[in-house]
Amino acid sequence: MNTYETLLVEQNGGVLEVTLNRPDKFNALNTQVSDELVAVCNHTAEDASIRCILLTGAGRGFCAGQDLAEVAGRGDDFSFIEHLDTAYNKMVRAMRTLEKPIIVAVNGACAGAGLGLALAGDIRYASEKAKFLPAFIGIGLVPDTGVSYWLPRLMGINRAAEFLFLNERVSGDQAVALGFANKVFPHETFLEEARALAQKFAVAPTLGLGLTKRLLNQSLTATLDEQLDAEAQLQNVVGHSADYREGVAAFYEKRQPVFKGN
Ligand code: T3D
207 CA distance to ligand 1 centroid (A)? Predict the structure, then answer.
């Protein structure tokens, strides 16, 4: 296991629980945080004993986006292209290409690139204390970290325009209604709810979940014909897996299947 300075990382059974750990800064992002999240994804991809990631934040915030304290030290030649490409875009790509589920448990403020980080997960559970805001236009920036990709797809372009232009602050309930959070729970229980979901995924057919994620990813830009072909190709992979054999056997034996993830 790698060592991390900005993250707390703990494996519980098949679940890797990852906590953004810069609570005094509302877990604001910098290159070190995103590099460490990429390392977590790479480690998870290689370690068959990890079958799900649960990502949350320490303290009152989930993630306040770019650490604004680091902006002051930038010179005129600072390249936002290079910064985003090597830091936050790399993080989003690592999360989306990781073929294992990522649950994001949003415990508090979720802003800017922190919203992009949350949207790069597969399922978002929110505490009643969660608040989501784009933040970008509030400081004169455009959306990044995938926010302008996900929001129109999840909430429609008109509501995305309103949310982004007006830099609206929305609650967990509103995020569910808008379609970009899955469920909201009381603050006292929300992490337990997310952990229970993660433990379900940890005993699910991991190969099937991972390839379902691949299909969902490509569905966002594919034609129906491309998607039908991709489904057939990937069914031909999972259709020869041990978990599929186990699933069918358990069905006929009227018992719970024991999926090993392969
Ligand atoms: O520049 C580039 O690298 C390009 C990439 C950009 C990507 C982006 O993410 S742009 C957007 C950057 N983020 C923001 O603009 C959000 C700024 N923060 C806020 O709007 C609010 O702080 C929150 C809505 C997140 C939380 O509000 P609230 O009222 O609950 O808490 P607070 O009192 O404002 O903040 C609590 C502490 O966190 C505070 O520190 P203090 O005063 O107690 O010592 C605050 O300074 C700190 N904090 C919050 N956000 C950031 C931050 N520190 C550094 N960077 C932050 N982004």
Answer: 38
